[in-house]
């Protein structure tokens, strides 16, 4: 039986790329429906670029400081993605805000992972925000990207309990473990056609694994 074509994925990073590594590892499985074919960073010194190159994946920096404005940087990014025939973009700690035009061009084809249970605690310092709010559950969310920051249809979430005595660092360590499991699982769902956008919501075709909270 002929293998169906794998979804061509680019991962965008700004730092060490721990979630990128999790996606690369998952994609080594021949049965995985996506392949990571490109890693791009807005920072030439991002440690994740070397990690991607070690895995044999083309990895390039497009330094945002070399461009006069967001639109010209986004245009350069868009050109790289289109030249590589990318089907789906995964943001993994990519610390840039896109222009609405760029987001529109990749609507329904760009995922982000955020370290909170959205819509709670958007932006940065999410673990400190969670502790300050006194929530008992915290976690991470994978969502489709829309022009509004940390919004967009939620594909999946993973939750952890907040413990007495937690500080932002201890919370971050446990959330990162969840992120590294959730993101590859979600990419497989989207690339395999089992998670699809229906207006502003995501419909999942089959049941979620235990411990992963899907928005059904």
From TrEMBL:
The keyword Transferase applies. Keywords: Purine biosynthesis, Transferase. GO terms for molecular function: phosphoribosylglycinamide formyltransferase activity. InterPro entries: Formyl_transf_N (IPR002376), Formyl_transf_N_sf (IPR036477), GART (IPR004607). It comes from the Bacteria. GO terms for cellular component: cytosol. This is Phosphoribosylglycinamide formyltransferase. It comes from Methylobacterium pseudosasicola. The lineage of its organism: Bacteria, Pseudomonadati, Pseudomonadota, Alphaproteobacteria, Hyphomicrobiales.
């Amino acid at each position: 039986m002929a293998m169906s074509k794998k979804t061509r994925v680019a991962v965008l990073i700004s730092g060490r790329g721990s979630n990128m590594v999790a996606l690369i590892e998952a994609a080594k499985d021949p049965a995985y429906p996506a392949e990571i074919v490109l890693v791009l960073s807005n920072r030439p010194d991002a440690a994740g670029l070397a990690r991607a190159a070690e895995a044999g994946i083309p990895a390039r920096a497009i330094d945002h400081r070399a461009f006069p404005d967001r639109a010209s940087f986004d245009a350069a990014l868009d050109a790289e993605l289109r030249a590589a025939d990318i089907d789906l973009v995964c943001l993994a700690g990519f610390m840039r805000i896109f222009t609405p035009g760029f987001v529109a061009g990749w609507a329904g084809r760009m995922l982000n992972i955020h370290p909170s249970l959205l819509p709670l605690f958007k932006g940065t310092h999410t673990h400190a925000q969670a502790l300050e709010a006194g929530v008992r559950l915290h976690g991470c969310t994978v969502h489709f990207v829309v022009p509004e920051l940390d919004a967009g249809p939620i594909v999946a979430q993973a939750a952890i309990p907040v413990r007495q005595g937690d500080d932002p660092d201890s919370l971050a360590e446990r959330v990162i473990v969840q992120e590294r499991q959730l993101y590859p699982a979600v990419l497989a769902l989207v690339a395999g056609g089992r998670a699809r956008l229906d207006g502003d919501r995501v419909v999942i075709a089959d049941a979620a694994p235990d411990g992963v909270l899907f928005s059904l």
